[in-house]
């Protein structure tokens, strides 16, 4: 058995950044920018007024000064002439400042009668002009890699980047195994339960930016599992759930090794989720998750999510652990790392009462995995602990 | 001019929760559960072993006790008989515990030769049996409203809920206005800029769970804007961007009122984003956002996001403000509420140097809006301030 940290290092060896594809700007939010993108023009492309008012020469600005209004500059329709001495041009927010002008009087500081403009309030020192290129200049880049937020989309639009280079989404095939499983919507027999792991993991992995293919349930036979592996071809990552010990042998490991899987490791010194297996099969990485629903989801957060982030080319791939103050005591931990279901609030973090790895109801009520090191001593209220938000 | 808080209250009067629709379980993540859903069976549906081992009678469990193995209970295939005195049944994790047995010996505590089983290590007090219904019982509900997480999807799968009642997604039509605008990918003229607001807002609003229709850019004419409003029909919310003051009149307000818009308010005492207008037009709510890119995005976070959450039927609709310690000083604030672009890290929060509302590059570098009350005095490093994560 190896540690969680060693397992993650080995998992990172199984996957690498995926190639770039281009998507329309409107589809880029939430994707990972995979190459730097660069503005091809200045923004604003011209000196622009930041207010509604009048463009004049700054050395003529003083209380009671008078100007003749000679034209108008609107957004998209600049004043084509130049502002001469004693002249003013009506200007609107965002419009190009005309040649000859270097100051915009705010309209509230003026009085206009016909073409005659008078300064009626002392203008401030601000010119109310945004210089050309003050937001960004031609050649300004947005650096990859980067998870694209709404703000980045707006900025790329302003930079006139209609197509965006992003990492291809990893394709993940999910195979649930077990004679006892039926799909949601089916009528289960008395010995059967509903397949829940693939649905939970699909939601988790799609939220991280993967494309998920849910394959038919594999039964606890060699031929059924071989059929499922056949259907998984083309995926970047094949994830099996359950089947780690069936009868007296390890079905998933044996069948996948029969299909050429090169095993990287087997079993991790952790709770929940000890029987976790990984390797490469064909062109894909492969991870065998434990079948207990909570174990499968926890292993998803700890191992699959970092693999997805690595395939997406992100720099921050490790789970984003944080610290919080205990609001309930903790018993001594055993010999394995323990990821306890917990609830974190402004008042602190408290582990859920029942840590059995079959309890999806407890997982759904929790919003954190509280991390315990092997043999971590009992902890009191007020001590700081590490956790992973979920 | 009204306050941000008053504006939000008026905006909430313009929209209400949308009707329920059913989606397949696999499409439910990220949606808002709109009606309680209820399990129709117990989980597990039978007393189940939590370990691989042997099912026996607990009153026969003691060191060196011997049993005859009479059968096997696997997941999906229970042992049909009953366990009698001196008998044991081979059992696997998740399998039904046979009648007559109330204890599962862990296989590591036993030695088996043929059909003869001997207890070789003193078993612990735990029975290693999960009672029927320990995760949830038939009739257990998940309460609406609730943003559906991956964990909820897994739980609903286990509850055998194949179709999920969720709030219909709000449909939002976005209309950019301005003679100066061209779409990304076009070749802008010297006086033109690229439409960025609709792209940024589309990404933001889709991330919140809305369906966004980006309409053709409306020019600064009555007929062009009327055409755009015509295309917006069927939306739950129509959002215009810019056009608040064009020439010497308010184009969007005038045209929309000409089309029957009932105005709720106009102008908010805030920075950035003062010219914000709202009302109802036909069957839709309508919001007129300012045209400066940063103002439009900030108003999106402060006003559109809460409206979307209200339409989705969520209980927590207000922006999720937090507090942080200042890591840079702040100057005195003016008479309007100010939402400063800022960067929050573990070290604290610091406002960006340039707060001009045209700077998308600054917005893209920030991850928070630092809230300043009207006339808030200058603040020192170390003081606590309120912010909205973005």
TrEMBL record, chains A, B:
Superkingdom, according to UniProt?
Bacteria
Q: Which residues form the MoaB/Mog domain?
A: 173-310
Query: Which regions form coiled coils?
Result: none
Tell me which Pfam families the record gives.
MoCF_biosynth (PF00994), MoeA_C (PF03454), MoeA_N (PF03453)
Which pathway does the UniProt entry assign to this protein?
Cofactor biosynthesis; molybdopterin biosynthesis
Q: What is its EC number?
A: 2.10.1.1
Q: Which UniProt keywords apply?
A: Magnesium, Metal-binding, Molybdenum, Molybdenum cofactor biosynthesis, Transferase
Q: What are the names of the required cofactors?
A: Mg(2+)
InterPro entries per UniProt: MoaB/Mog-like_dom_sf, MoaB/Mog_dom, MoeA-like, MoeA_C_domain_IV, MoeA_C_domain_IV_sf, MoeA_linker/N, MoeA_linker/N_sf
Catalytic reaction equation(s): adenylyl-molybdopterin + molybdate = Mo-molybdopterin + AMP + H(+)
Q: Which family does it belong to?
A: Belongs to the MoeA family.
PANTHER family noted in UniProt: GEPHYRIN, MOLYBDOPTERIN BIOSYNTHESIS PROTEIN
Q: What is the role of the protein in this entry?
A: Catalyzes the insertion of molybdate into adenylated molybdopterin with the concomitant release of AMP.
Report what the protein is called.
Molybdopterin molybdenumtransferase
Organism this protein belongs to:
Ruegeria atlantica
For this protein's source organism, the top of the classification is:
Bacteria, Pseudomonadati, Pseudomonadota, Alphaproteobacteria, Rhodobacterales
